[in-house]
Amino acid sequence: MDEYYMTLALQEARRAYEKKEVPIGAVIVRDHKVIAAAHNLRETEKNAICHAEVIAIDEACRKLGGWRLTRSTLYVTIEPCPMCAGAILQSRIDRVVIGAMDPKAGACGSVMNLLQMNELNHKSEVVTGVLEAECSNIMKDFFKDLRKR
Fold first, then answer.
1. Using one digit for the tens of pLDDT, what is the confidence trace for 46-90?
2. Of 26, 68, 97, 115, which one's alpha carbon is 20 to 30 angstroms from that of 33?
3. Nearest-CA neighbor of 92 among 61, 118, 49, 127?
């Protein structure tokens, strides 16, 4: 099942790529239903917080009518940054499935792991490496194209 939902997150990442946005996609699932899907829109919106995860969390909260996203899983193509990890904790998402890790800015196991700190009041299960090659390659291709431009 994780691969299926990560494929949907990759579709979102491709939408970002087409818009010349950093190609990261996110999907939130509860009870085997997609409740939100998003991709990065920082450049489009000219807004630093328009990361795929934050947009998806906002959409899910609106759809469900509350800020608690317990019983939900977030699928994201690239490891969330500290801001997004904070949003994941604040929304009480139970499980996070990551395609590829981000050794430069990742906050779910690479640089740090905010999602599993004992000092915080919520923890999320973290699963990594789902469709890792595909998630990593779309980023590599994007930055290769960006350097050509």
1. 999 999 999 999 999 999 999 999 999 999 999 999 999 999 999
2. 115
3. 61
Ligand-binding annotation for 84, yes or no, is yes
* Per annotation, catalytic residue among 3, 18, 43, 53: 53
We find that the CATH architecture of domain 1-148 is 3-Layer(aba) Sandwich (3.40)
- 53: annotated active-site residue: yes
pLDDT tens column, 19-28: 999 999 999 9
Question: Considering only CA atoms, which of 61, 67, 51 is closest in space to residue 105?
Answer: 51
Confirm whether residue 108 is marked as ligand binding.
no
Residue 130 DSSP code:
T
Residue at 2: amino acid letter:
D
Helices (H), 19-131: 42-45, 52-64, 82-90
Known binding residue 135? Answer is: no
